[in-house]
Amino acid sequence: MLSRSQSTRKLLPFIFNKLKVNPNEPFTPPLQALFSTHIVGEKPILVRDFIHSALYDPNHGYFSQRSGSVGVLERSIKFNQLEGRKAYMKHLDKIYKQSGIAWFTPVELFKPWYAHGIAEAIMRTANLSVPLKIYEIGGGSGTCAKGIMDYIMLNAPPRVYNSMTYISVEISPALAEIQKQTVGEVRSHQSKFKVECRDATDRSGWGHVEQQPCWVIMLEVLDNLPHDLIYSENQVSPWMEVWVEKLRDGEGLSELYKPLQDSLIKSCVEILELHKNNNRQSSAVSKTWSKLFPKPRRCWLPTGCMKLLEVLHAALPKMSLIASDFSYLPDVKIPGERAPLVSIKKDGHSSDYSNYLDAKGDADIFFPTDFWLLECIDHYCSGWLKMQKDKSSTQGKKRRTITLDTSSFMEEFGLPSKTRTKDGYNPLLDDFKNTKFYLSVPTHNK
User: Fold this and answer.
1) Among residues 299, 288, 296, 309, which one has the least CA distance to residue 379?
2) Which of 29, 42, 231, 397 is the most exposed place for a label (fewest CB within 10 A)?
3) Are 150 and 187 in contact (CB under 8 A)?
4) Alpha-carbon distance 338 to 227, whole Å?
5) Rounded distance between C-alpha atoms, residue 346 and residue 437, angstroms
6) pLDDT by residue (tens digit) across 366-396?
7) How far apart are CA 17 and CA 368, in angstroms?
8) Beta strands in 141-263 (DSSP E)
């Protein structure tokens, strides 16, 4: 099965609806999008602002309306007592029906073993001669934080646990309280754990630059970060920013195309262009092909990720990063490269919109992570990639990075035997084929 798609979904090839879009004509969504017009005011907004409002607006955002959107299992699943895949899927289906939750995160389904694997990766890599400091962004129910702290308490030297600090940066006040309760189940954790209820992308919230080494954990965070959309008439025409505006009658939304001017969008395009410049051999062929077969292009850019990493590198220049997310998503109906799923759940059944403008606070909007692009953005925000472009430095990379399949990560750092059923089936290793881990640590280059 593929994670982040409900267990009842069939595994189908990607579906891309090819829409013919004329930049001089409005791209008008169907009638069900009319209720989303309150997201857009009198002035056009960038696509990332539309997505941010549709997901996080305190009045009509998807996550704001669903305080129970993050599932919490009452007890850990005893995988060793299940016969095999069929028994596991039956048990999982029962859990979903009883809870009414749209989905459970991997760290919840495989607690405490998933968090223990992350803790082991930190223990092997961290400089334990200085106090261990961990930030988690978007900590959900606190299951990951508790699991990591439990593991360090039981497996690290006492001085490491006694001097450690674990800070959850959580934008949701409701989840912040749940995290305190979850971690507080172990009394000794309470003095070492705190929640800062704020937006991690706001630089002011981080205060002064922190020069000490630290760790940042982001599990299933990147997929819900706002993205921007760019459009081009054909394969060689310049990219244009996509904005969202109300139709003149006020009863619908359309796309508006402008020359590139937003700094985050331009930075993302610059990174993509740097890669393209390393593959110039195909440019002549592309120009010829585009003349014979012109085709509009739509490309989704992780500008929310770019903004977050810019803030993290500025505030925590010596951070080490562990991020886990979805490398691809099934059944995508939205057009464009790195396009999202816009999914709603009603009466226990899931369905997807074919137009992102249909989202009106009732839909989860989540994106696949292009881990190659994530690595490039990481290097760019660290300052190294930009220096290479400007040829202002001959220094090596400022980060050492690696991307691993979830199965490879857990086989290296986790305890796979704990999530194995009687017949050898292991959902953590055998399922979740569309998820990866990204690890990034600073080098000694200044």
Assistant:
1) 309
2) 42
3) no
4) 10
5) 31
6) 999 999 999 999 999 998 766 555 555 555 5
7) 17
8) 165-170, 193-197, 214-219, 228-232, 240-246, 253-259
